[in-house]
Amino acid sequence: MVLFLLPFVLHTQSKDNIRKHTEFLASDKLEGRGTGSRGIRLAANYIAAQFNAIGLQKINGNSFYQKFPFPGQAEMESNIVGFIKASTPSTKSVVFMAHYDGLGIQKESGQTDTIYNGALDNAVGVGALLELARIFKNAGAPKHNLVFVATAGEEFGRHGSQFYVEHPIFPNADTIICLNIDGFNVSGPREDFFIFPRQGGGFCR
Question: What is the pTM of this model?
Fold first, then answer.
């Protein structure tokens, strides 16, 4: 068991930022962010714009979009990936991940509201991902590379995360840990966070 005290406090600005991101991503305008939909393209563009405003670096220096094929669909889906370079040259990385796709529109008999907005699963997780990126960027150059990945194609097969594993920015062997945010604490302040790594506590050195 490893006990982590996170290196920041969730101040009012952070709460407001997460709320703003969540409200947009979970709004009816994005129609539940279903795979292949107009709404998921709007979500991807929003996340990429936020990464750019924060000042994250792009993949190969030219794009935040990591496109990948989705079964049975002509149009590609996209992970949105940005990173903060380590203070000294290094291939070691810490990866923060959250999926931004949702269930979209599901029409069932007797329903009047057919949009699955996906606020908890997982608009709020992406909001937290964006705020973490902003906080760490403002904190200065980190010891290790910090990678922020918003994945698509997760609700129906985890395609986005699998594609990133197969095409990482930094070698998987040098990835210290991947922290996936699926849902987020909405019940009030917490003081302690517990992480149980399968390989033991040596990963944090």
Answer: 0.87
Could you give the 3-state DSSP secondary structure of residue 193? strand
Per residue of the chain (205 residues), give pLDDT as tens. Answer: 333 334 444 577 888 999 999 999 999 999 999 999 999 999 999 999 999 999 999 998 899 999 999 999 999 999 999 999 999 999 999 999 999 999 998 887 677 789 999 999 999 999 999 999 999 999 999 999 999 999 999 999 999 999 999 999 999 999 999 999 998 776 777 777 666 666 555 555 5
Tokens representing 103?
Answer: 């269930």
According to DSSP, the residues that pair with 65 across neighbouring strands are 80
The radius of gyration computed from the CA coordinates of the chain, to the nearest angstrom, equals 17
Question: Phi and psi for 46 in degrees, rounded to 5?
Answer: -65, -45
What tokens does 193 get?
């966070």
Burial status of residue 194 (CB atoms within 10 A of its CB: 0-12, 13-18, 19 or more): exposed
CA distance 197 to 194: 10
DSSP 23-87: HHHTSGGGGGGBTTSHHHHHHHHHHHHHHHHHTPBPBTTTBSEEEE--TT-SSPEEEEEEEE--S
What phi, psi does 124 have (nearest 5°)?
-70, -35
Burial (CB < 10 A; 0-12, 13-18, 19+), residue 189, is exposed
